[in-house]
Amino acid sequence: MLYFVATPIGNLKDITLRALEVLKSVDEIACEDTRHSLGLLNAYEIKKPLFSYHKFNEKEVGEKIIDKLKSGKNIAVITDAGMPVVSDPGNVLVQMLIDEGLEFTVIPGACACVSALVLAGLDSSRFAFLGFMPDKNSDRKEFLSKYKDLDLTLIFYSAPHDVKKDIESIYSVFGDRRAVAVKEITKLHERAERFNLKDGLPTEARGEYVILVEGGKQENKNLTLTEKEHIDLYIAKGMDKKEALKQVAKERGVSKSSLYKYTIE
Fold first, then answer.
1. Average pLDDT of the chain to the nearest whole number
2. By mean pLDDT, which of 138-147, 151-160, 250-259 is the weakest?
3. Taking Cα atoms as reference points, which of 139, 167, 142 lies closest to residue 154?
4. SS3 for the chain, per residue?
5. What's phi and psi for 213, nearest 5 deg?
6. Residue 236: per-residue pLDDT
């Protein structure tokens, strides 16, 4: 069995009891950076053979993991922080496991994008996680354009050296919107910085960020009509003048009395 195990994103105490149980029971642990992962494992007195598995060797090491599983070993896969596969190594391995018909499961736990969604205060009823943006400007524009009109909160990961560029790229495609930059999640200096895209990040970028942007608003095409045309539209749909007046006033954000003169005729 292979286990994808979530690890803390900041506070080491956020490891789950089940995750500790699995890490103690497996034969070997695959991790992005063995030196980084030793800090977590040593904190809980877990001593297991570690080997490196990261985005630059996913295919090669994935084949070795497959061989280990076929020989009867139990393997855990962890990343430097958070959930493997989610903007971290693991997706290639998942496909290989499926192709080989090998069993795998997930040990859930900390996840930066969900934690940031709670801290941001934007609409959390519907959201889309978009991960890291492409490096090239042309690819960024094409990438962002696909999600411009989605009426739901959009979540991005951003490295400290990319934060300014990422925010500028989002603004260039989306226009001005409310946004929140969340950093140091679960740590001592955890912060959620709220700002408008046109203004950029209000403080100097330090640390890993989750950037959340409010969704696009669907344009009401009725607002391109004149007031009278707008009212006539709803009357033609079967509303009486009073109902049409109320609906148009609501859509245009004005008082009914200001529209009454258009119904006199």
1. 93
2. 250-259
3. 167
4. CEEEECECCCCHHHCCHHHHHHHHHCCEEEECCHHHHHHHHHHCCCCCCEEECCCCCHHHHHHHHHHHHHCCCCEEECCCCECCCCCCCCHHHHHHHHHHCCCEEEECCCCHHHHHHHHHCCCCCCEEEEECCCCCHHHHHHHHHCCCCCCCEEEEEECCCCHHHHHHHHHHHHCCCEEEEEECCCCCCCEEEEEEHHHCCCCCCCCCEEEEECCCCCCCHHHHCCHHHHHHHHHHCCCCHHHHHHHHHHHHCCCCCCCHHHHCC
5. -130, 135
6. 87
CA distances from 157 to 129, 172, 180, 205 (A): 9, 18, 12, 13
- Tens of pLDDT, residues 200-245: 998 888 888 999 999 987 666 777 788 888 888 888 888 888 888 8
Residue 118 has pLDDT above 70, yes or no: yes
CA distance 106 to 84: 9
pLDDT band at 265 (very low <50, low <70, confident <90, very high): low
**What is the pTM for the complete model shown?**
0.79
Contact 182, 191 (CB under 8 A): yes
